[in-house]
Amino acid sequence: MLLVLDDDNRIVKYSLIGGLADDNATEYDENELPEDFDVKFQPLFYKLENNKIVENSDYVEPADTPPVSEPSKQDKINAQIMLNQAKQKEDQDKFNAQILLKLAGGTK
Predict the structure, then answer these.
(1) How far apart are CA 19 and CA 93, in angstroms?
(2) Res 65: pLDDT
(3) 5 C-beta neighbours (distance < 10 Å), count
(4) How far apart are CA 77 and CA 5, in angstroms?
(5) Which end of the chain offers a freer environment for a tag, N or C, measured as fewer CB atoms within 10 Å?
(6) pTM of this prediction?
(7) Rounded CA separation 96/108 (Å)
(8) What contacts 24+ positions apart, CB below 8 Å, involve 92-101?
(9) 30-76 confidence digits (pLDDT tens)
(10) What counts of helices (H) and strands (E) characterise the chain?
């Protein structure tokens, strides 16, 4: 198995099959994994200490994603302008198609 470690030997990511796009990946015997490694794994939750994978005693759960804020008044104005432009383009495309049909003799 391959492990990618940060500067403090905390495991950032791992791969049991295939490779990792990281030249600094460390090989590790997957038979030596803690029993619940795959269930508990989170980046930085485990670290490599004395050639053993152990839980990182300094691990802190990542903060929840920040709440989604309401769009600003300007964001709403910009969205309305883009919607109007898209509608105008759609109308123009329909008009152009009708003109092309008439020019091609498709309708009279």
Answers:
(1) 49
(2) 67
(3) 19
(4) 46
(5) C
(6) 0.55
(7) 15
(8) none
(9) 899 999 998 999 999 999 999 999 999 999 888 776 777 788 899 99
(10) 2, 5
What digits encode the pLDDT tens for the residues 24-40?
788 899 899 999 998 99
Secondary structure (3-state) at 53: strand
3-state secondary structure 1-36: CEEEECCCCEEEEEECCCCCCCCCCEECCHHHCCCC
Q: Is the pLDDT of residue 83 over 70?
A: yes
The CA-based dihedral angle spanning residues 63, 65, 69, 71, taken in that order and rounded to the nearest 10 degrees: 150
Quote the CA–CA distance of 1 and 44 in Å, as a whole number.
17
Of how many residues is the chain composed? 108
Query: Are 28 and 52 contacting, i.e. CB atoms less than 8 angstroms apart?
Result: no
3-state SS class at 46: strand
Q: Which of these, 33, 36, 29, 26, lies nearest to 6 by C-alpha position? A: 26
- Would you state the structure tokens that stand for residue 97, as one six-digit string? 């198609």
